[in-house]
Amino acid sequence: MMTSLLPVTLLAMQVGQVAPPDLDAVAAAPNNHRVILENDQVRVLQVTVMPGETEAVHEHRWPSVIHIQSWQPALDIRYAVRDGKLVEVDRTRLPAGAPPAAIWAPNEAPHAVTNLGKAPFRLLRVELKQPVVGK
To answer: Tell me: the pLDDT tens digits for 16-68?
Structure first.
């Protein structure tokens, strides 16, 4: 299960700045999130974070299935928007080692990932735009 992480490099958006109106991953962190398929039901993102890089603060508005292609130790930094500003609320180190084949993730509040490894951190994220019904 993925948890949150701590960055070791400067964030693309500094804490305390006014939160942008659109924190969607593709708009807020376009250097790390590339759309490879999108329709009215799903959006598939290729996510890449280079060694030592911290992606810009962003969010994922839809629940997702994540397939990690290249796992690296990382730091997940979580934010909240308070009085129109981003405030850091949590840092969690993601452990090294083999990840599960797939991970379910609910929609995610503002966050950023720092790659602490020596190789690119890569994953495919399938965002489900339609409500999940039944079990």
So the answer is: 445 556 899 999 999 999 999 999 999 999 999 999 999 999 999 999 999 99
User: Dmax over Cα atoms in the chain, in whole Å?
Assistant: 42
Radius of gyration of the chain (CA): 14
* Residue 9 β-bridge partners: none
CB 12, CB 100: distance < 8 Å: no
C-alpha to C-alpha distance for 24 and 88, rounded to whole angstroms: 18
11: amino acid identity, one letter: L
Asked if residues 82 and 18 have their Cβ atoms less than 8 Å apart, the reply is no
How many Å apart are CA 13 and CA 124, to the nearest integer? 24
Please state, in angstroms and rounded to a whole number, the distance separating the CA atoms of residues 73 and 66: 16
* Residue carrying the six token digits 């708009």: 27
